[in-house]
Amino acid sequence: MPFCPKCRYEYKEEIKECPDCSVKLVAKLKEMPDIRFAPLPDLPGKVYAEMIREVLRQKGIPCYLRSSGIIDAYGISGMPVGDSVRIFVPEDRLEECKSIQHNMLDHI
Ligand SMILES: [Zn+2]
Question: pTM for the whole thing?
């Protein structure tokens, strides 16, 4: 699956360029080590996902994002609809990341 090196979203194989950043997708994120990733619980929207991505980045935790609605939606309106976003984090730091996400959503 290709990734956007800028916003770290994962896209379907046939997508070549990130619709958000107009950046060419790469097969693998460079700084992403060869480890197993596991998803955090679904987020209600991209805004939350990007806030958490930022916190994880500051903590040096690699992650990538996947939007559930983005592909189907782009075919129809050009805009992502189903805005549920999932963040994938290293399996061995899943619990740590879960509590980060939990704490952040608690304070919104
Ligand atoms: Zn992007």
Answer: 0.73
Q: Mind listing the domains of the chain with CATH numbers? A: 37-106 (3.30.70)
Helix (H, G, I), strand (E, B) or coil at 2: coil
Q: How many angstroms separate the alpha carbon of residue 7 from the centre of ligand 1?
A: 4
Q: Give residue 17 CA to ligand 1 midpoint distance, Å.
A: 8
3-state secondary structure of 19: coil
Q: What is the pLDDT along the chain (108 residues), one digit of tens a residue?
A: 899 999 999 988 889 999 889 999 999 887 676 789 999 988 877 888 889 999 999 999 999 998 765 444 444 444 444 567 889 999 999 999 999 999 988 765
- Ligand 1 centre to CA of 3 (Å) is 8
Going from the Cα of 95 to the center of ligand 1, the distance in angstroms, rounded, reads 27
Q: Round to whole Å and give the CA distance between 19 and 23.
A: 8
